[in-house]
Amino acid sequence: MRKKDIGKNVFLSGWINKKRDHGNLLFIDLRDNYGITQCIIDKENSNFKELEKTQLETVIKINGKVVDRTKDTINKDIETGDIEVVIEDYFVLGTCRELPMPVFSDQEYAEEIRLKYRFLDLRRKKIHENIILRSKVISFIRNEMSKLGFLEFQTPILTSSSPEGARDFLVPSRLNPGKFYALPQAPQQFKQLIMVSGFDKYFQIAPCFRDEDARADRSPGEFYQLDLEMSFVEQEDVFDVVEELLVNTFKKFSNKKLMFEKFPKISYSDTLLKYGTDKPDLRNPLIINDITEIFSRQDITFEIFKKLVKSGSKVRCIVTKNTKDKPRSFFDNIDKWAKEQGASGLAYFTIEGDKKISAKGPVGKFFSEDALKEIMKKTEAKVGDSIFLACSKQKELERITSLAREKIANDLNLIDENIFSFCWVVDYPMFERDEQTNKIEFSHNPFSMPQGDINKINFEKPLDILAYQYDIVCNGIELSSGAIRNHIPDLMYKLFSIAGYDKKQVDTKFSGMINALSYGAPPHGGIAPGIDRIVMLLANEKNIREVTMFPMNQNAQDLMMNAPSEINEKQLKELSLSLKLKK
Q: CA distances (Å), 372 to each of 274, 289, 431, in order?
């Protein structure tokens, strides 16, 4: 209702969001899906005392007249702020018990209570708006995909178990005793089969199920992704579609700026070197540099690092611009923080001098002027800049420098929160070596196409083989992985054999796929951006539960519906199952 409704007699239904008793007047904020309307009732009205006692969140229907608010009571923060409804009569449509948590405010509340009473939590303004945003984003994406020529298909929920990826959720088969379906971790094989079937552009807002531990950006159990696949394409064709879709979506639903509308491409090896992670936040201007070779100089006497380098460690550093005036406590706190993260700390010095270059700080004395000049040339550091150094084996070095890059940028307030910064991470290795077993295994997606002329690939050096695999990252959050698929059966057998699978195992595990590819398969590729993470970014939320309607807790439990739950003996018998629980 707006000013145009002034003078009308109306019925209005909703929840009692808030009450304010002014003695002779009772103000009631009535809330529904569209917002809040202020209603008032005079003490002379016979319903006054009953309404005064009515519990918040009771569902009522009022009969009243729309009137103009006085100038000093207009509320510009709500769309109904120019009017109010004078209550003549009311009816209770749904009573309410004592509330276990407040609904009219968005204050922080215990997660256990919020999830147990999620239907109340969802009435709160902020999360209610998040869920509405999610619906609008999904509708917009559907329309955009249709405009781009994609057709929406649904793929099976009950399917076969996959040997790769996360743990499956298994479903016992009553009609096939002793056998199990798996809920799909993703529609990977099915969407490729759709391409083999002659449909050249497929998409689906797909539910995916993975038995994984919860994280801030990952729900335990299930999540949704925009699953898409295209035939007769190369990597750049997929990039063009996804970039157009994401640019349009983020422009539509956010006022934040896009750092890039054509997303930069960073190789996997470069992103680990420059950012310490394959999920780089490009809003952060700090870059990691490898200066291991410089430590072979005789005029560097930092013996702790030099000994570590001789034993195979590397040295990497982060330059902070114009931090010469920062107090020593700033640097010492970073060093202390690094030790709290399990590292040996971060060494540091600040570059000084006009005519003669020197280094100020605990380790500055170990570097000659020439050594400092070489470091400055390598890192593009200037006088007045500071340098943080870390030395370790590569994996640990990447971990601590990635964390330090984020920590230092936050301490220096370098990250613009009003920007979305997308990038592609490309050129993933096809294989990696497992540190525990020393075996060669797939590093990403086993169905990916290796790069280069397939007739000239050196299979004797599998760790050198790169794949047409790519991730899309925004503000340090991975939205999706994708790949150009391997559609050549003989090549697939060869690649799987490197990872330890013989032909019979491939035929058994991927029978539908390998069979289909033998009957004329087009080149194809795709990707699957996470809907939950897209909405999380647009809603400016740090936790995925804030954009999920009915999430589980950290232990993968639905506290509202008491799931998972025990099943009775009759159900077990029908499924030919018996339980043997671990003690």
A: 20, 14, 38
The Cα 203–Cα 248 span in angstroms is 17
pLDDT of residue 56: 96
The region, left, alpha or beta by phi > 0 then psi within -120 to 50, assigned to residue 291 is alpha
Tens digit of pLDDT for each residue in 381-400?
Answer: 999 999 999 999 999 999 99
CA 443/CA 430 separation, integer angstroms: 6
Residue 435 CA: distances (Å) to CA of 71, 142, 214, 399, 439: 71, 42, 24, 16, 8
User: Position of tokens 């969407």?
Assistant: 191
Cα distance between the two ends of the chain:
61
List of E strands, 329-394: 347-352, 358-360, 386-392
Burial of 311 (0-12, 13-18, 19+ CB in 10 A): exposed
Rounded average pLDDT over 326-347: 95
> What is the C-alpha separation between 10 and 269, in angstroms, rounded?
66
Closest CA to 316 of 296, 292, 282: 292
Residue 283, pLDDT above cutoff 80: yes
Mean pLDDT of the chain: 95
107 band by pLDDT with thresholds 50, 70 and 90: confident
CB atoms within 10 A of CB 71: 6
Dihedrals phi, psi of 419, to nearest 5 degrees: -130, 140
Buried b (16+ CB within 10 A) or exposed e, 515-540: ebbeeebebbbbbbbbbbbbbbbbbe
| Cα 159 to Cα 179: distance, rounded to the nearest angstrom | 12
Which of left, alpha, beta for 384 (phi over 0: left; psi -120 to 50: alpha)?
left
125: left (phi over 0), alpha (psi -120 to 50) or beta: alpha
Q: Is the peptide bond before 522 cis (omega within 30 degrees of 0)?
A: no
* Residues 220-263 pLDDT 10s: 889 999 999 999 999 999 999 999 999 999 999 999 999 999 99
The order of strands in the sheet holding 469-474 is 151-152, 201-210, 221-231, 524-527, 477-484, 469-474, 422-426, 265-267
**Alpha-carbon distances of 422 from 2, 243, 516, rounded to whole Å:** 41, 9, 35
Spell out the residues 6+ positions from residue 512 whose beta carbon is closer than 8 angstroms to its own: 189, 193
Question: Residue 217's pLDDT is what?
Answer: 80
Q: Going by DSSP bridges, is the β-strand pair 419-420/257-258 parallel, antiparallel, or unpaired?
A: parallel
Q: How far is it, in rounded angstroms, from Cα 320 to Cα 288? A: 10
CB proximity list for 401: less than 8 A, separation 6 or greater: 276, 288, 316, 318, 390
pTM score, whole prediction: 0.91
- Alpha-carbon gap, residue 486 to 365, rounded angstroms: 55
